[in-house]
Amino acid sequence: MPHGKQTRVLLLNDMEKLDKTLFRLEQGFELQFRLGPTLQGKHVDVYCNYPAAGEAFDRHKFRCLSWHNPTGKEDDSDKYCKLDLQISGSYQYYFSHENQKSGGGYIVVDPLLRVGADNHVLPLDCITLQTFLAKCLGPFDGWEDRLKVSKESGYNMVHLTPVQKLGQSRSCYSLADQLEVNPDFSTPNKKCSWNEIGKLVEKMKNEWNMLCITDVVYNHTAANSEWITQHPECAYNLVNSPHLKPAWLLDRALWHLTCRVAGGKYSDKGVPTLIENDHHLNSIRKIIWEEIFPKIRLWEFFQVDVNKAVQQFKTLLTQGGSKVKTDASQHLAVIQDPEFKRLGCTVDMNVALNTFIPHSNGPTAIEECCNWFRKRVEELNGEMYRQTNYHHEQAVNCFVGTVSYERLAAHGPKLGAVTRKYPLVTRYFTYPFKELTLEEEEVMMHQPDKASYFMAHNGWVMGDDPLRNFAEPGSNVYLRRELICWGDSVKLRYGNKPEDCPYLWAHMKKYTEITAKYFHGVRLDNCHSTPLHVAEEMLAAARAVRPNLYVIAELFTGSEFIDNVFVNRLGITSLIREAMSAYNSHEEGRLVYRFGGEPVGSFVQPRLRPLTPAIAHALFMDITHDNECPIQHRSAYDALPTSTIVSMACCATGSTRGYDELVPHQISVVDEERFYPKWNPAATPSTPGEVNFKTGIIAGRLAINRLHQELGTKSFNQVFVDQVDEDIVAVTRHCPNTHQSVVAVSRTAFRNPKTSFYSQEVPQMCIPGKIEEVVLEARTVERNAGPYKKDEHAINGLPDYTVELREHIQLTESKIIRQASVATKGPNEFVQEIEFESLTPGSVIIFRVSLDPKAQDAVGVLRNHLIQFSPHFKSGSLPDDGSESILKTPFLNIASKLTLADLNQVLYRCDSEEQEDGGGCYNIPNWTPLKYAGLQGIMSVMADIRPNNDLGHPFCGNLRAGDWMIDYVSDRLISRPGVCSGVGKWLKAMFIYLKRIPRYLIPCYFDAILVGAYTTLLDLAWKQMSNFVQNGSTFVKHLSLGSVQMCGIGKYPSLPPLSPALKDVPYRLNEITKEREQCCVSLAAGLPHFSSGIFRSWGRDTFIALRGLMLVTGRYLEARDIILAFGSTLRHGLIPNLLGQGTHARFNCRDAVWWWLQCIQDYCNFISNGTDILKCPVSRMYPTDDSPPLPPGQKDQPLYELIQEAMQRHMQGIDFRERNAGPQIDRNMRDEGFNVTAGVDMETGFVYGGNRFNCGTWMDKMGESDRARNRGIPATPRDGSAVEIVGLCKSTVRWLLELSKKKIFPYSGVTVKRHGKEETVTYDEWNRKIQAHFEKLFFVSENPSDPNEKHPTLVHKRGIYKDSYGASSPWCDYQLRPNFPIAMVVAPEMFSIERAWKALEMLEHKLLGPLGMKTLDPDDMVYCGVYDNALDNDNYNVARGFNYHQGPEWLWPIGYFLRAKLYFSKLVGPEVYAKTVFLVKNVLSRHYVHLERSPWKGLPELTNENGQYCPFSCETQAWSIAVILEVLYDL
């Protein structure tokens, strides 16, 4: 595990209840709770019952955790509250929002187990446990010698069944007294006490390095426990559980049947005392149906006394008693008698009186009414009869099934003749009184002094819901005879809380505390039937005594999710899993893989990572003490190979005493009374009562137990299971630090080799690497020690089998292997081919394997160089051999010279950008090309593969198959000039070592190298950005990388050259002409569609994105260069939309110039001395509208003159036809569309322009379909005065007015020629005109008779702002679109607060989507939210993507919407502002999720309706990222 603190992050999501999900953590971990997208922005409180420092744990006491926000308040992406986990156990957390619980779950912290006098840690995966039946240890003075067998066999944990006084049945789990040590352990001279047991347990821990655990049994007590007779309320008896009375009566009737059969009274009816065939069973069935059921009439307990009910009803009718009105839907139903007396049930007379109403008060009418009532009650009784009959059927089936199993079945116990000792079936209830007739006994059922001693036995129910208590009311398990009953034990009734049965809770708590005091852990017996709330309370008491309590349990719930409920609520450390459940060796191998470890070659995981659901830690046992003996099921030869397979599992492992000695039968927990043998090194195989290494497989067990512990201690935590053939399983355990492996090959013997065929031909095996030694070869062999005879006093095993074993030998000495040859798999990969001589069934061979020495050196050097990124790589590292000199320099030093533009090359660049340089993105065969040529392309794929260790992914397959991707990464950078080449050379040097290691390890180390380099490069990028980014949240930082992603320098310059007189312009040497040329960063509009060539740079996109991507991130110089470069192309008073390096520019948009002017204003406001830009020289490419493009430097002007020119030209009026108009520049545009006009309305001051055949704003979709007849028609011409342009113009005019007042801008207005004479309009005038007219003309009043409204009939949403004013199609003005918030952000002074707020609320209600804003009101008749540019059909409104801006949800408008909401909510009031901040954070959290999940690491241009993916959108768009950064900046 990596050094340093391990941190896990749990994302909380609204309404997510995770009580069936298991989260396992270790002591020393930090757990962080963070808000998932559904909760970000909300006020959430997290509560947990993990105790505060210095406090004791109380599971009912929850405390509120405090939030930490390391980066301040702008968003919730990094906000967390945490727990430092130092105490083992189960802890519950929940979180609430506005005092409403909104989700929760559990975390389980593993205990830290310590052994030895030095208290060293015993890792959970090193546990090797052996179970003993405590009663078979005999008197206490012999325990040490008997337990020593476990120590000598290499076990480090002993599990004892309960050591308490046993009940009458002598079953290990039927306890007569939970507080007293079993008196059998005492001798006349020496009493065995808790103290003595405690001393031995402590000795085992300190001197033998062994821990000791025992069972706790909470579910039942022995039927003869003295305390239960003094406290019958602790059991389910007929007083506290009267619902059991019918079942008790049936049980007594069946007992009387047993007595009669045993006495031969039914032989004349076909039932002799010895039941031998189906005919006898059918006769029993007949007797029960014909004699017993009619006699005991169980249905009467559920029926109503008809005459009594009718009489009561008649009395009420004749007295005319006032009836209470009842619900009409309420029907007459039987009300169960709580005392369960015969015919004691009733019906609700109110319902009866409201249902059966006489038509008059005469006696005839009343009689008729009573008859109807009688009929209905009789029908209800009939239903009860049928229901009871249905229970009878099940009861008979269960009864007969039990008799059949116990007396006829081949695999059953074959109990023989029916006697009182061996009745037909086990009794379900205790009966401690003298036997009477059934009729007399029934009377006792209602006498509390007797009935309280009729107690229900415990047992288990096949296929029952483990979370339901089968003895509680509502369950018919006892009546239907579905219980597989333990007739020696009484089920305990705790109730819901200690107050319900104080004696029982106190007694069991004391029992628990004694157990926890003397033992290191507990096994929860019968866990799946133990009431959860009881076990929770008891384990909390146990952990108060012993905090690092080891808790194990075996669950039979049949569902991993229900298992998790138990593990979570009880804090179970390990669940017992059993190899005997495997039906063949393949399944046995699968279980090994399932229960622990990672795949071989897994990736190194970061120390801070998401908390992922786990499966419960396993205690994997070859056999448990309550299951049948494997020798009976398989063969004696299988004991060794199966135990080897089990011990190779990367989890706790275990066995049961008797397995290793090859005891050929199950050691019964009930009947076994013999003692276990003692350890004696000198014993012979036939010595009774003594064992040693010659006995059974004990010698082999010692070797595999030692190996299991070594593998666990030394972090061999990667596992590979290979099914060599149907009987041979090879398990590899691999250490990811040293890359040593241990391979165990086991040939199982599920079938007896003496009687079944096993092939002599064993397949060859290939073991990668160099076999250092044979750790162990062993096989089960027969010897001449006489036949097995069951000893009377000692539990003995088969004497005629033992293990022939050799340890730590060389391959050449092996008797199992014929030969081992070395084959070469690759230049640095060696494989040893093993041919087996005699791998007989029942044999195992275990190899220790290292990498080839050269590969081992290469891994060591690689790990050494990776230490600079993480201390995790220290273990297994070797000093550098010095052959690659570049590696002497730390990567950080090499990379620190990279500029942000260089980082664009190293990290990003999509396929079309690379193609411009003659390359492309790496294409993974059978998969897809990477999104980026730079490291981000690989990291995006690895982010999905790494957490899941998805080594089967085509990406990993490609890395294992050859060096193509490895070479691509380094060579691509080496071929570039400057510092990028140095990064490439460093990677290439690292890859020299990478190529020398085995192919299966390459994905892991390739990832480690690139993760190290990538994280270093990201840190370097952020260091070159603004303080806002450097101190920002993870979300801010990741968004800011959009600036690196979008801003780059291609092979050919995208921007026109800047003035030679300008300072600090970057230059480079042209590779072809070898001349100096400018190399300014340009901003791509979006990837992949708008990233290269003529389509990379767009005026509108650049300047909408520039503030967020360049000013907010602190890239001021590059922002300046872009502003000036675009300025150099000013023509007709406009900035081009498509830049085309200036020489191929198209001046067909009306808004780009205003966005450019807004960016100059933002630049001046953002930077100290920002207004210096106004004096910067701009080389005019087109000093006049018609001049040819001039070279840079020929005509320079300060920027402020260009600004004035743009303003002047608009006031004067712009009217021209695009150059080269026609299909050569636009194949869809109609002729009139090439005419560009713009101007300023002298009355309102509004900028206007366009016509119905062009689209000069950002909503610029031109129809392309001949079939739908929309070619050449703009979908959204937005001619007239578009609202955002009016806002941008207002912002610019106001700004220039301020600058001219401060004498920073030399012009105070614009001068234009009108009617042959010059006219001056001051900025002050212009500003006031817009201010005076904006709300009057743009606001759609809520008053229908507003005189300012020109077209009242076109209004369909009130209280909003128009999208435009004066459009050629007037209805377009009134469409609700997301454009007016732009004006609100840049010119908020135009809006009145109340109206602005209402309009924004309407926008939120109608247009806000998950990621973007709908571009049109869904109520509009042309709305269509799905954009499909490839669809060509007859539909005018959608063909060829005509609805591009008629519904699909674009991202960039959401930024302005949220910024407007923030601005105006502050003015409305603090409460509204707080709500708005929540909305903003919540919306942004969705962008964060998208950004994190997107392989492009960006935000898209648009989505289809409701946030659905749109395949025609750019995957990452400059302005989408920019506006979200701006929102965060405003926050």
The chain-level structural class is alpha/beta
Physical arrangement of strands within the biggest beta sheet: 12-13-16-22-23-24-27-28
- The total strand number stands at 59
How many helical elements? 40
Describe the overall structure.
The chain is of the alpha/beta class and 1531 residues long. The protein is 34% helix and 17% strand. The chain contains 40 helices and 59 strands. Strands 12-13-16-22-23-24-27-28 form an eight-stranded parallel β-barrel, surrounded by four helices. A hairpin with a 2-residue loop joins β8 (89-97) and β9. α4 packs across α5, α16 packs parallel to α17 (698-713) and α31 (1152-1166) packs across α33 (1283-1301). The radius of gyration is 43 Å and the shape is globular. The chain starts with 6 loop residues before the first strand and ends with a helix. The mean pLDDT is 94.
What's this, in brief?
The protein is an alpha/beta fold and 1531 residues long.
Distinctive features:
1531 residues; alpha/beta; eight-stranded parallel barrel
